[in-house]
Amino acid sequence: MTIHTIVIDSPIGNLKLTSDSTQLLSVQFVEEEASIETDHPILIRAKEQILEFFKGDRRAFDLPLKIEGTEFQKEV
User: Fold this and answer.
1) Cα separation, 9 vs 76, whole angstroms
2) pLDDT tens-digit series, residues 15-69
3) What are phi and psi for residue 50, nearest 5 degrees?
4) What does the H/E/C string look like for 20-40?
5) Whose CA is closest to 58, among 67, 66, 48?
6) Domain limits of the chain?
7) Is residue 76's pLDDT more than 90?
8) Which class for 24: exposed (0-12), middle (13-18), buried (19 or more C-beta within 10 A)?
9) Which of 25, 54, 55, 67 lies 20 to 30 Å (CA to CA) from residue 8?
10) pLDDT tens sequence across 9-29
11) Backbone torsion region of residue 46, taken as left when φ is above 0, otherwise alpha when ψ lies between -120 and 50, otherwise beta
């Protein structure tokens, strides 16, 4: 499985977005600098939606997510 990543600059710090070929896997705070743009469609959509959220233009996200954890964790 190929993992794709990008680090974006946000108002709350740098965020590392990680995806596989079909789903967003994680969003993490990182100290590393923003990275080169990606051509991966899921990461492009995730970046756009996160930045729209911080601008106040988005309230809900529409991204394919890979959610892992116990049943309780998934429900939370």
Assistant:
1) 27
2) 999 999 999 999 999 998 888 778 999 999 999 999 999 999 999 999 999 988 8
3) -65, -45
4) CCCCEEEEEECCCCCCCCCCC
5) 48
6) 4-75
7) no
8) buried
9) 67
10) 999 999 999 999 999 999 999
11) alpha
Q: Between vectors from CA 52 to CA 48 and to CA 58, what angle results, nearest 5°?
A: 120
Give CA separation, 61 vs 21, 49, 52, 65, 70, in Å: 19, 7, 10, 10, 23
CATH of domain 4-75: 3.30.160.70
Any alpha helices (H) in the chain, and if so which ranges? 41-55, 71-75
CA dihedral 58, 59, 65, 68 (to 10 degrees): 140
